[in-house]
Amino acid sequence: MTDPKSHWGKAYTDDDITVYYDARRCIHFAACVRGLPQVFNPQAKPWIKADAAPAEQIAGVVRRCPTGALHYELKNGPAESPEPTSVEVRENGPLFLRGDLTIAAPDSATPGGEVKDTRAALCRCGASSNKPFCDGTHRNGFRAEGGQKLNTA
Ligand code: SF4
Ligand code: FES
């Protein structure tokens, strides 16, 4: 079985937490920037400062990232546990999935095998360069109704 962390991207480490960021799965939803601007600042370098807030607080904001672009590992704390499975249809955008997910995908999107995750945004417009994941290309004019939340336990 593939190590889930092999899909988590670049690591930003402090004593108590490591935050991982995969730019290919970020659609600039900005839940992170709104949640903790002193940690997630796209204008700064590095853009993630894992020492700028308590580790538990950072973990809480990472869990708000709907696409799985962000992950974390606490030095002395539990791993993220999956929420009840849900699918949310976003207006003019992707499907947001939460739960105990196993995603089989082309090697180009998931080198090393299937993706195990708790959060993902799947492309609904067909134009993503990182299918099955959304890469934000739907902003170039994709139109479809949304607002439905399905299969919520
Ligand atoms: S997709 Fe995730 S990492 Fe990207 S801006 Fe949104 S919350 Fe932040
Ligand atoms: S739905 Fe976002 S790129 Fe297709």
From TrEMBL:
One Pfam family in the UniProt entry: Fer4_19
InterPro entries: Divergent_4Fe-4S_mono-cluster, FeS-contain_CDGSH-typ, MitoNEET_CISD
Record-linked SMART domains: ZnF_CDGSH (SM00704)
Keyword check for Protein transport: no
UniProt key word Metal-binding: yes
GO cellular component: cytoplasm
Domain Iron-binding zinc finger CDGSH type: 98-144
Gene Ontology molecular function terms on file: 2 iron, 2 sulfur cluster binding; metal ion binding
Highest taxon above the source species: Bacteria
UniProt keywords, alphabetically: 2Fe-2S, Iron, Iron-sulfur, Metal-binding
Name the record gives this protein: Iron-binding zinc finger CDGSH type domain-containing protein
